[in-house]
Amino acid sequence: MAMDQARTTISKIFNGEPRSYTRFNLTQNMEGDNSQVEMKLSSDMDEEVGGNGVGEHMNHHPRPAYTSKPNQRSPRSICFMGIGILLLFIIGYLVGYLSHRRTDRAAPSCAEALSSDDSDGSAPIQTVPSLGWKDITALFKDKLSTANIESSLSEFSIADHQAGSAGDEALANKLMRKFRDYNMNPWTDEHFVRVQDPPSSGSNKITFRDQSFSESGFLSYSGTGSVQGTLLYAYYGQMDDLRRLQDLTIDFNGKVLLVRAGKISFAEKVANAAAVNASAVLIYPDPADYSIGEGTDLYGHVHLGCGDPYTPGFPSFNNTQFPPAQSSGLPTIPAQTIRPSTAAAIMGMMEGRDPPRGWGNGGLQKYKLGGDDDLVTVEVNNVLTEKKIHNVFGVIKGLVDADRYVVIGAQRDAWGPGYAKSTVGTSLLVEIARSISEMISKNGFKPRRSIVFASWSAGEYGAVGATEWLEGYLSSLNMKAFSYISLDGVVTGPTFKASASPLMYDVIQSTLKEVSSPSDSSRTLYSQVAGSNWESAVMEPMTLSDTAYPFQAFTGIPSVSIRFTSEKEYPFFGTMLDTKQNLDIKVSYSLSALVKTAGEIAGQMALRLVHDHLIRLNVEKYTSILRSNVALINREVIGLQASGRVPKTLKMQWLMSALGSYSRASRKLTSNIQNSDLGDFEQCRIINNQIMGVERDLLSPYVSPQISPFRHILLGSGSHTLGGLRAHLTAIKEGSASADLDLLKNQFALTTWTIQSCANALAGSVWEMDNEI
Question: pLDDT value at position 319?
Fold first, then answer.
């Protein structure tokens, strides 16, 4: 401002009127030592006539040039003029400086101006958080007290809160009140979903050797009707187990498989059985795996997918036009859980050969594979019903990038008490929300980005509430939600485990280094679990049964599930025995201490993600994963080309080139991050957008989310994935009827371009790339 005033004063001296824009064109007089200065003056309006465009400016007629004549004044006059100009310059500078200070006092800052527009009474906006990271973590740990956790556990523990029930709705209303008390602007998301429940009258039945067994447990989304077939014991029902039986020349056609619960999900067991033409599946909890009592019923679902299977790929809002569509993951064969006592009675009467070694190591007195006379009838009469469910949300708004947010979620419903399955997670969700809200209102914490807290319904039917929300707001969420943290089943034992997107490994590691062990406060959790390789000690694959899976593989949001668990699977999930008393028995020390530690991990990860200038996600982590997958594919291709099963015209160079492009782009972004100016908000936002796009860009754009919802080429499922490509190479190697060379070439092309497109997006703007001709 001071310089503008000084320039105005000088212009008055030389020209008698102010000029708003001055352009100097200096040309040297080549004929002598004297320099001639040609000064051209033009107004802003002249420069920007027409409002835009270089062409318009070039076509504008230039104003006449004003050329100063050689100065004929005396040295004394020049001296006085110089002194006058200097005095005027000093006066102009002082006037500008004082007026600038008055303007600073009178005008609100950028942060204050944004704050004045916030009509919901939230905390004042500032562009720079006022607390350091150590202060933030110390505050959070102090706010998240075991006393408050125990109070919430007691408040949210009820006996009956099945999805869509009065108990489920009561918990939803309670959460709404809590979020409202914390000034989190709560809202709900309502869906009308179709689920399968047990028979409205009577029960499902199993008949074996003239003995009938009525089973109160059930598997939602099972095929219905009555099926008869020869019974075959198939261990856990994994594909490796079925291949082992095939090696014994056992025919599966029309067989009813008897399998143990565990290892893989109920849905995968039934899908495996259907793939070998079995007619039905019976699933029981073996006493060696589940100490739940002989008469305990088991509940679950067998949809090989997530969400409402009758609205695949789109949400079940009330105004949705429901076409006659259903998920490809719905089974067509009946499936039923049976009690341990029923399994013992049936196995005791079975005949046939002994099972393979190790299959008979269980809690039943006898194990046989089954004979030709072991006929069983399975009758499933489940009914399809429509339920209204509510997801409940609250938000803590960010102060710089409010439209970028991390989501923390927990399942609210359960088949029975669901203490470990849902009560602990819901209580922890509330306590993390309360703690961070108090940090903002009482201690001056100012997050850069937002945190959304979500309570899901119908989780027991396969993450229905969460998936319907994702389907309903997919186009918005995969651009703005940059991480999901799941609290489902968060405490069932003393050992910490996690499953996550590779992008989140670094933030998990750094958080474990800052959180104390629940058993020894003098040690960090990282030092307790890490050993020589912390990833192998802590990280597990994210499976379809993980409630974070649809966020990761369907929506492309980097996700993590954290849990304290034990070596054996928690036996009370899916039963009426999931109570506080039974959880206390399974946890070796204080339950509230474990819950607090889990809350610190989840909360500090969320705080780190919303606090830093740049989002703490490591895009280079995928390079090694892509490289290992491409190396396996290359090895298979070389072997098949050597045997003549794959033509040598199939080249690996393009897939390797795409891998190289991603590697270079991720390294470049890492370099940009290291050299970035954290005070440049626009630069930070550009980099954050590049980071946020990686997971989304690894979703294959070449398959329909309705037919193949889990489109992630590394963590999803289907022929479009790198795993599907390897499976096809294996099918060619084994001479399978499903082998198709044209399809293989198509898989190579589309997978290659998905990786290349992700690399292109990561590399930056289109004008920064050069695809050589």
Answer: 64
